[in-house]
Amino acid sequence: MKHLRHLLRRSGWLRADKRSNDQVQRGQKPTRRLSSEALERRELLAGDFAAAHNYFLANDVDNNMRVTPMDALTVINHLNRNGGNSSEVGQGEEIKAFVDVNGDNRVTAADALSVINTLNRMGEGAGEPLLEVQLSARDGSSAELVRDSNGAYNVAVGQVFELEVGYLDLREDKVFTLPTGTPGQTVDVRFRQGVFQLVADIGVSGATNAPSLITPIIAETQQIKIGQQIDDPTQTLALEVTLTSATGQVSTNTARIAATDFTADPTGTLTAALETLEDANGLFLDAGTTVQVTRLPSADPDDFFLQVRFGGNDAIGVNQPTIRVQPVISIPGVGEFPYNAAAVTNQEFRTDNVLQGVDSSGTAIGQRYDIDYESRSLPNPNGGSFEFLNNRPAIGSFDPNTADPAEVFNDIGGLGPVIAGGVPEANGGDEDTLDNVFDALSIPVFINAPVQGLTFEVTPGEDSNGESFLIYGFLEEPDEQGNDNSRPVPLDQVRFDADARFVINATVDGAPVTPTVSVAVSPAAVNEDGNNALNYTFTRTGATTDALTVDYTVSGTATSGTDFTALSGTLTIPAGQASATVSVDPTDDDTVEPDETIVLTVTDTASYDVGASATATGTITNDDVATVTPVVTVAVNPAAVNEDGSGTLIYTFTRSGATTDALAVSYTVGGTATSGTDFTALSGTVTIPAGQSSATVSVNPTDDSVVEPDETIILTITDTATYDVGAAGSATGTITDDDTATATPVVTVTVNPTAVNEDGSGALVYTFARTGATTNALAVTYTVSGTATSGTDFTALSGTVTIPAGQSSVTLSVNPTDDSVVEPDETIILTITDTATYDVGAAGAATGTITNDDTAPVTPVVTVAVAPSAVNEDGSGTLVYTFTRTGATTSDLTVNYTVSGTATSGSDFTALSGSVTIPAGQSSATVSVNPTDDTVVEPNETIILTVVDTASYDVGAAAAATGTITNDDQVVVNPGTISLSPATLSVGEGGAFATFTVTRTGGSDGAVSVVFATSNGTAISGADYTGKTETVTFADGDSATKTITVSIIDDTVDEPNETFNVTISGATGGAVLGASASAVTIIDNDPTDPGTGSTVAGSIFVDEVENLNEVIKSGGSVAPFRDGIKDAGESGLSGVRVELRTASGELVATAFTDMNGSYRFTGVTQGSYRIHFGVSTANTFLSGSNHVPVTVGASGSNVAATNLPVLGLSASMSNLDILASSYLRGNTDAASASNNGRRGGSVALDASGNQIFFMAAEGFDNVDYSELLLNANRDAAILTIVDGTEIKTALLDENDFVISRDGTALQFFGGVEELGFVSTSNPLTSQGFSQAAIDALFSRAAGIANSN
């Protein structure tokens, strides 16, 4: 089913100078509407006009729908027949044409001139445009979408906008006054008059599969026709309504409508019936689906022709269940039967374009579901607006699969099908007055995928008569054939220009896409000769609707204006094209030069972004050739020869290029060899003969007997104008010296062994060795050093040693001198002294060591340790301290020690002597310490023995040992018993305090404490007494009685005696509880009302908007209305604390609202009061204060309901559905238990997790009261309900509920049956709940249960 609806537009029409674009503020999102839309109305004016003036087309004198020279000639002929004179209309020649062109009721030459001027402006024979067709994109409030700098619209994917087709009336717009026929009365009449029927196509192009990118807003419509026979008051008739799904599932119940109710309100009763039908899961229709029932005109006006439109976000594209209506008749005493006299027919326009039904042969009928629209200006027989839904191609259709992209929207009609007599008659008009028509239509659509440059364009369509446009002017009396003066408009008088199309872009977020411009060059290089050009192509992305000017800079090594013609720096990409080219032709020259570049770089501007390829480089290749200068290099081979002249150094000079002529090459001679001495002097010039590319220079060394380093001969080419010097511009040859000289010996010294003992059993042998000839003896001088003393530690040395002739080495032995001195090892270092007769080698010194072999006496080291480290005080164990020495054990060793620690010598243990002797032959001795037993309770005590340092021994690291005497005596502790008294207490309401005592008996050891706390019974903290929770503390040894008082609040309310409770709990320090509870009775002291008193009652509830549909349809111009009365469908807030206070603010009584949000105070005495509701703007939207005044009359008087209607709930409460929906999608157990969130409830909480109010969903039937308490961790909750006199509790964990981030709103899943409630009076739990809060919760529940 392709079902498009139209939007009711602004009243009035557009001026001929075209309407200005309505601007949408940046950041404002157009309203997305999915409801039925209607067409815009244009007002018509009525009046009588001069018969000689063509109000339809002023210059069309002969009324043939054209402005031609014949029109001017007709006026001229009329003037000629009247002698060329002007005349009043109606005087002289009979008027046979519309010769009064300017409408002044006269025929003059000015009328002919007007036609001639029109022809001159438009061209002879041209038809004057009467219409300009416009197409625009608009939001739900009729404001045109903002265009970007390129004139395109930009929307987000899925954003709904409206295709609006309208027109401009291009005829003259003039108002003049005519008499009405009543003396003294006139009427203003517009010269421009009439409206147009518009039949057009809308095409979609600019992208691949462009039509498939468009999705219209489509939902299902069904039509039901019920015969007039149902309206028979003489019969007992009714209608039974059911729903059947596409799979054949039928609603589990049947809605029954009495015929009398149906005929009185057919649309309302059918709407109500559909909303009550159910299936196995609840309501048959989805929660997000709405129904709108409208009565349509029928061929027989007494039949009931109803149209049902399904709406809402959940209805788009959904095949809805089929509505079945069965009339029935009840015959008293007989039974009930189908009533077929009232025939029922129905057809279903589904989203799959199938029209349900069968033809006479039983074959299914398939038919397109075409565009329909509604009008709020045409009457509906049943009240409200009139709707056209003829389901005929004349209205128009949507076909994304059409073969012609220009007819995606085909034959869209601005008035619908033309029927005999024109459009339906309007209220208050006669049958020939056309004053309710349309001048624009709109189709809500959205784009379903990102796209750029999508183009919509309106073109002429055709109605069933083959016409595209009709003009309806003012209607005169019909002629004999019944024709009016409507005229078809020739297409050549309808203007289609840029306003009849637009371009739209769709992105994910709706932001405009800035085009990106890049540049590339092809070919990349051309020769300088100009045969080819460098083509730089600038390409843009995105829409190509408009021309785009691109700026660029020119750089590179080529010179603008010299190497190529200078460029402008600007390029325009034409509309409709994605790229444009700049061609660059090189300027040819004959200069030999490097290749040169031309670089074009895109400049960033506000109208586009620069792409990744922002620069393109083209190259001009040099094609000029210059004369080549030869390049000369030199090389030598061999690179070295001996000095003896047996070889020759040959230097080869080589040239490149042509060899036509001989080439003289100059060179210089350098190097370390001496010219004329080491070799024959050279000329410095060599000639490369013609025809050859090289020549050589030979150098022979001059031999000598001088020992000298190798020497070099370097020939270096000299640069001249006739050649260039190459990279190898020099060559180096080497003369290798072949003479030898006498060698100087090198002397070294070593020692072996490197060390000997001091006792002289071994000698240090130092060996002096020489290199070279051994022909002669060689005297070597040395020095003696080291740590050993010459003449004391060893025999003094001479400082000279001689290596004999014929030997290469000699030795020198050094024997140590023995002593008994304990000393470090000592060294003897012999170092060779350098002289003219030898050189000193690398081993110029040798070190020998005399190892000390004397020893000294060793001082013993004494340490102490204890084992075991601790013994009991009872003497059953001994602390054994062991003193241990190192070294020799030949003699006795007396060790001294000190005694310290926390134990007392002589009291806790036997006093010690302070010394111990380690006997000869032993390395240790022990000292045993036995504790002295006692009965004193004391800390463990230590005995520390510490070694004292003396001359006969040293003290080791373990210089002290600590033994511990472990106390084995115990103390008896008795913290005592703590009790509360009295167990019961009665106190008068006028008394200031109730007094309690807390005592400690049976012991006072240690500090102990208990928590004293009050809790409500029938008395309420803050109203009847001041609640108190405090800690009572007893210090160590303290057994004094503690006294605590609780303030009693006196009021003036006559009420029963009331009770509250006092407990002590949570004993610490080992104390136990004795009597721990007290029941307190407050004796009322107020006189009894002589009457029965009055009842004050009311409720707190969410007050729904009564006229919501009107507010939505008005776009906000109609103010919402709430009646302040709790209706059946409005949700009450339960569990709200409601206080009755006097006018001065004194608390009289407290109540809590029940599951319907209701409360009640009884026995209220006469006076002025205020009702205070325990909600605030933090959790609800209030229209005023949460304090409501109330006046109570004499006893038994009626008090008006005191309600607090709230406008809505806080954001946290309102958003619970979203939070719950997200949670349930991932938690199938909770979803199943709560019927997808339908069973359960929502709770508003304060910062401590206490309930402010409770809103029940399904699953809490017959429950009188419900309250939820959340723990401090927000992961568990106690849910308590009161069912009659029974209190039941369920403990919820974090899987049973979701909570808002700020902790002020909670939704739980499941009703009474699913959550496992059990009967209890006060559950004790340790899951993060305050016991005081639990006590208060159950006190309130008990009060409500007791009152039931």
Automatic annotation (TrEMBL):
Main localization of the protein described in the UniProt heading: secreted
Gene3D superfamilies: 2.60.40.2030, Dockerin domain, Immunoglobulins
Subcellular location per the Swiss-Prot or TrEMBL entry: Secreted
Keyword Metal-binding: no
Residue ranges of every copy of the Calx-beta domain listed in the record: 506-603, 616-718, 731-833, 846-948, 961-1065
Pfam families hit by this protein: Calx-beta, Dockerin_1, SdrD_B
Keywords: Calcium, Ion transport, Repeat, Secreted, Signal, Transport
Protein name: Calx-beta domain-containing protein
Keyword Glycoprotein (UniProt): no
Organism encoding this protein: Novipirellula caenicola
InterPro entries with a match to the protein in the record: CaCA, CalX-like_sf, Calx_beta, Dockerin_1_rpt, Dockerin_dom_sf, Ig-like_fold, Sdr_B
